[in-house]
């Protein structure tokens, strides 16, 4: 049953939320609302509707009962004080509130820019500078908030919100890589402008639910060149033009528009390829369901030759969501293999520890929780660095073996 979040109450079993579980402040797919505070969190997060399972929890109130407002939910959840407050204090805006304000700020600026592009007018990139600053500040406060808000997009909003999301991802990624702040700002602008050439593609083609025919595919594949042409002249930073033109290239030379490969692609172009695809595949599109972040990253890792593998590994560390099959280092200084996705928190998946780094010794296989109460993940590791050519065999054995049987691991490693 789908209901307005404002009509939710404690005891309800939430099966799904509007925008997907990434939009939920609880970061889990299913939950029981344990208190009015839980209801208030959903309302405050901007979740408009939820899907409840009345077979596993309580149903909605009778129609005569008024829906629960944000203020009422917060008031019910607040502890009762023996001394009334001397004055009412306005609730401080949380980061999701701030992120929503940034998205609203971006709407007018991005739509104006896209309208200019459709008319063939020169792009005033300077008008986007305040927006880049706002996105940078939001990412610095909480890199997840802005992406959560941009997930709540309709098909009509996809193109400009995708650009905002890619800008935010590039800013966070650049900071993770330790790039200079001037480069961080330019990359944020590059994200906002990377798909400007799509304004030359008919909306009917961009939003088509079925497969594109050869002529339509050719139209789409020319958008990098169209965008680059719009950015020529003036003082547009070169990295912005570079990203616009090359974000669909692949390191194996099988991308477009020019089939450039390897070192012929700049760092910015290779970074933007990762960020662009990650946001696209984790977003709702007219022709596909969104992939969960862990699923998306696992598939991206399997596309050999598409991305720079070192940069993709660094991006995964930046996002903090390690896909199944990834090698990670735990806080205990053990190496472990990710077994699946975290049901409640995608940054804390189940893992199988098997190697002690300080002693350089194999350990009895142990399945470990990586949440705050367990052994958290510090970051990703490269299997080939630690185990050379035997890593692929070790990984397959680690996934297949019973946890009390370490023999296949030793055999796979040549011990």
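^ Assign residues to that structure.
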């Amino acid at each position: 049953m789908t209901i307005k979040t404002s009509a939710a109450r404690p005891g309800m079993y939430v099966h799904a939320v509007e925008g997907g579980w990434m939009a939920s402040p609880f970061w889990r797919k299913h939950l029981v609302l344990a208190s009015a505070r839980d209801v208030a969190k959903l309302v405050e997060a901007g979740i408009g509707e939820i899907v409840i399972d009345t077979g596993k929890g309580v149903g909605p109130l009778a129609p005569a009962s008024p829906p629960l407002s944000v203020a009422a939910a917060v008031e019910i959840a607040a502890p009762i004080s023996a001394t009334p407050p001397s004055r009412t204090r306005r609730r401080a805006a949380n980061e999701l509130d701030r992120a929503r304000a940034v998205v609203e700020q971006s709407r007018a600026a991005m739509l104006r820019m896209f309208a200019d592009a459709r008319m063939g007018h020169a792009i005033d990139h300077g008008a986007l500078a305040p927006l880049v600053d706002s996105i940078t500040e939001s990412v610095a406060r909480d890199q997840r908030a802005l992406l959560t808000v941009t997930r709540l997009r309709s098909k009509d909003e996809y193109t400009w919100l995708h650009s905002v999301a890619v800008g935010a991802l590039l800013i966070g990624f650049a900071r993770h890589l330790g790039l200079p702040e001037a480069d961080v700002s330019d990359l944020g602008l590059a994200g906002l402008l990377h798909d400007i050439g799509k304004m030359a593609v008919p909306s009917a083609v961009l939003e088509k639910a079925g497969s594109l025919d050869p002529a339509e595919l050719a139209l789409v594949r020319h958008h990098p060149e169209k965008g680059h042409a719009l950015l020529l002249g003036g003082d547009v930073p070169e990295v912005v033009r570079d990203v616009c033109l090359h974000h669909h290239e692949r390191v194996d030379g099988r991308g477009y528009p020019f089939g450039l490969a390897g070192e012929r692609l700049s760092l910015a172009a290779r970074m933007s390829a990762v960020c662009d695809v990650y946001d696209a595949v984790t977003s709702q599109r007219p022709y596909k369901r969104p992939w969960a972040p862990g699923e998306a990253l696992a598939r991206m890792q399997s596309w050999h030759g598409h991305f720079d593998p070192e940069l993709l590994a660094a991006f995964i560390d930046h996002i903090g969501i390690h896909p199944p099959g990834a090698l990670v280092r735990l806080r205990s200084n053990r190496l472990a293999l990710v077994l699946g996705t975290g049901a409640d928190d995608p940054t804390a998946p189940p893992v199988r520890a098997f190697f002690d780094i300080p002693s350089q010794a194999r350990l009895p296989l142990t399945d470990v929780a990586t949440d705050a109460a367990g052994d958290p993940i510090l970051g990703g590791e490269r299997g080939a660095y630690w185990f050379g050519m035997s890593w692929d065999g070790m990984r397959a054995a680690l996934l297949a073996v019973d946890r009390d049987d370490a023999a296949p691991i030793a055999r796979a490693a040549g011990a």
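DSSP finds 17 helices and nine strands in the chain.
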